[in-house]
Amino acid sequence: MTKADIVNNVFEKVGLPKNETQDIVEAVFDTIKQTLAVGESIKVSGFGTFNVRKKSARIGRNPKTKQEVEITPRRVITFKTSDYLKELIEKA
Questions:
Q1: CB atoms within 10 A of CB 85
Q2: Backbone angle region of 15, left / alpha / beta, with phi > 0 → left and psi within -120 to 50 → alpha
Q3: Model-level pTM?
Q4: Which of 16, 42, 44, 87 is the Cys-Cys partner for 50 at CB 3.0 to 4.6 Å?
């Protein structure tokens, strides 16, 4: 599913003009991006939780050359599904 598909689904369910629906969907995604960028979590009831986690530097290995390479520290986004969403997926 793409962002355009999400806009179309919301448009069909809510009935707002399509350009307003697109603005709302964009605003939601922008808020999510800005919140994660500053390192805060986002919990959506019935859906799940997005967290930003710090990964420390570590030594990796190039699988082709077997040469050791340092992997720099970075932040990654993790997602944990809610119990409700897990149940829905299992039933489908």
A1: 14
A2: left
A3: 0.80
A4: 42
Task: Please report which confidence band the pLDDT of residue 92 belongs to, taking 50, 70 and 90 as the band edges.
Answer: confident
Domain ranges in the chain are 1-38, 41-92
Q: At what angle do helices 18-37 and 3-14 cross, to 10 degrees?
A: 130
Sole residue written with tokens 């999510």: 32
| Fold held by 41-92 | HU Protein; Chain A (4.10.520)
- pLDDT tens, position by position, 12-63: 999 899 999 999 999 999 999 999 999 999 999 999 999 999 999 999 999 9
In the 3-class helix/strand/coil scheme, how is the chain assigned residue by residue? CCHHHHHHHHHHHHCCCHHHHHHHHHHHHHHHHHHHHCCCCEEECCCEEEEEEEECCEEEECCCCCCEEEECCEEEEEEEECHHHHHHHHHC
